[in-house]
Amino acid sequence: MKTMKWLIKREMWENKGMLLWTPLAIAGAIAALVLSALAMGHTQDIQVDGHSLNSITIEGTARLRIAETLAQAYIGTGMPVLMVLGLLVFFYCLNALHDERRDRSLLFWKSLPVSDFTTVLSKALLALVVAPLITMGIAIVLGLVMLLATCVVLLTHGTNLFGVVLSSPDLYLSPLRLVGLLPVYILWALPTVGWLLMVSSMARSKVFLWAVGTPVIVTLLLVWAQKALMFGIDAAWFANHITNRILLGVVPGAWLAFSKSDISIAHQEHKLPLPDAIFSASWSTLGGISVWLGAAAGIGMIAVAVYMRRRREEA
Amino acid sequence: MSAVITANKLVKQYGKQNALDGASFSVEAGRIVGLIGPNGSGKTTTLKAILGLTQFSGELSVLGLDPRTQREALMNEVCFIADVAILPRWLKVRDAINFVEGVHPRFDRSKAEKYIANTKLRPDMKVKAMSKGMVVQLHLALVMAIDAQLLVLDEPTLGLDILYRKQFYQNLLEDYFDENKTILITTHQIEEVEHILTDLMFIENGKISLSATMDEVGERFTEVMVEPQFAAAANALQPLSQRTVFGKPVMLFDGADRAQLANFGELRTPSVTDLFVATMKGSYA
């Protein structure tokens, strides 16, 4: 356990720029843009839930509804940061087992009593747990800053929402819902993380080309075989179930596309608030078999990566 | 004394090339062994086999463990510096010490810090800001603070200037080595290690061609600065090699009678370098 702690720290030392400063910079940029827009008075036409908020004091149910919407939606301002998470995890995994061979530090790490299994596990944990938690944390803080700014601006226009927003349970549930999606993210990201770690452990050079080129070219070949040679292959199935899953699984929310979930239906027909609908639709994707097959394949590919790190010799 | 390493008929093939071709040897505890051989003779492959970094056939026991299957246990007792500059560029001195302390049960932090205090290394220095010599100092500081039974050094001073090289071996001898530790070194800079070695192993074409203590080497090999008038007689005793210094032939003999050789001229104990050159003459032919 102590070893794992240090291995995770090690990964953070190496990748701090990517895993911490990139999302922070993006969050900072978003905050700066929005705050300066608010400060410079480009707020003539703020609308929340169809109500214009220009210098009118809003009261009654409209006020409650606005507060409720804000408390539910503020996490949404962190969406750009969460989208970056997909990129970060993708490139982190791609380099995780390749960089140590390229800079020849592999032999130093191997001179320490740390097994290949533990090392690869630490890298998978970083990609699947630590990096998402960091990004979620940043997204939540960004959302809170935006919420605070919005409330301050509304206050200057005569509407004080602080009390209502602070007493809204959604304010506290939203971050929990976001973090509560982590298990869903882990399961759906496993095939991609496994694939990338495996390629990272195998490719001598041009890791990106191997990781992306291989599945894309195979897909194109299959499409060609299907169209030109009339083979009875379902190339679209391959593209959806293999190529997309091993390349795009690290994108947060990709599971909704993969499982073609009924999220919009739940939102419209049952009048569920959108965050609730997303949350429950996400968890309901775990009811299908494909997520579990993918996760198993991901674990299998991580096992191959462990084997490769153990057996592979320096050229 | 017990054997730290016993190897029996190690074979390793890269394609059709035999990197190791039935190498057998043993290394006793408390020795400093130089594994010397020309390029491509199988030195590095031997070390990799000992460290469990490569697959091979044959029997090999290191501290009673099989490096192929018990690598993690072995790494608690064995340390190695495989080449210069293999510490990652982003690593800070402080982080390096913290990390090794965190994962290695036999790491003594105070030893590493004491050693680093005598260098120009500072805790928040990154490897990429260090000179080659400083990187090796850091690596040595980490390794010397580990109470390992076997230390393997593969060209540890490659690319270092003479000051760093001298200091490296001096530190190794004074601050690290004791009767419970065994050091296995490969290097091409033979003249720099020969005075610290207790044992010598020559490897040639994947086989061990000589394995002896330095005392045995001194007894067995004799160099004679032959007076010109005895040259023919000396030649009849089939010297291993012959070269000319100041117009006099210098001949190297293996196992010849010293009293007899003394008649031909001045006797000397050959340097390991001369011995190496003499015995490896044919290896590139």
Q: Would you spell out the secondary-structure blueprint of this structure?
A:
The complex is a heterodimer of chains A (315) and B (285).
Chain A: H1 2-39, E1 47-48, E2 51-52, H2 60-73, H3 79-96, H4 99-102, H5 106-110, H6 116-156, H7 162-166, H8 169-180, H9 182-202, H10 207-228, H11 235-248, H12 254-258, H13 263-269, H14 274-284, H15 289-311
Antiparallel strand pairs in A: 1-2
Helix pairs in contact in A: 1-3, 1-6, 2-8, 3-6, 3-9, 6-9, 6-15, 9-11, 9-15, 10-11, 13-14
Chain B: E1 3-14, E2 17-28, E3 32-36, H1 43-50, E4 57-62, H2 71-75, E5 78-81, H3 93-103, H4 109-117, H5 132-144, E6 150-154, H6 162-176, E7 182-186, H7 190-193, E8 199-204, E9 207-213, H8 214-220, E10 221-226, H9 231-236, E11 241-245, E12 248-254, H10 258-262, E13 265-268, H11 272-279
What are the salient characteristics of this protein?
heterodimer, A: mainly alpha, two-stranded antiparallel ribbon, 15 helices, B: 285 residues, alpha/beta, 2 domains, six-stranded mixed beta sheet, four-stranded antiparallel beta sheet, 13 strands, globular
